[in-house]
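Hey, can you fold this one?
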Amino acid sequence: MEYKITRMQNNSSMCIVCGLYNDFGLKIHFFETINNEVICKTNISDMYQSYPDRLHGGMICTLLDEILGRVNMINNPEGWAVTAALDTRYIKPVPLNEEIFIVAKTTRDNRLLYEAEGSIILSDGSIAAKSHGKYVKSTFDKIADADTLHSVWFYDKSYEVPNSIII
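Sure. Predicted structure:
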């Protein structure tokens, strides 16, 4: 399946998932699609292992929480949110050192809350994990103590944005 990219989302400085200055972070870039989804592709090293050659379940949940938390930004780039509930189903192991894809979309949206669902998809197209989450909409100043938004949240001009991602 082809996901046509419309825009790359911002990265942060220190987030474990998207933080570009976090020595232990995954440094993942996230993209919006023409179908109002958020997608990324990544290859996770054995630094995040649980059982041999398997991604830790906590990291699987972290990856899904991150992408579900980003779908609100499609229609509101400054649309911050905090996780209220997250239900994750682990279907099959997520291998390390192999390309994986993560995709999410909004399923319900109102003024104060939105719901989203997402999946981790393996390189063979099979689904390894799924999540459904509820997120409370907020503003940056209510969820962070950083001095300025742009010191911790910024567009990575050095990253080449693909036209599409194919799974």
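The longest helix spans residues 57-70. Let me know if you want another pass with a different chain boundary.
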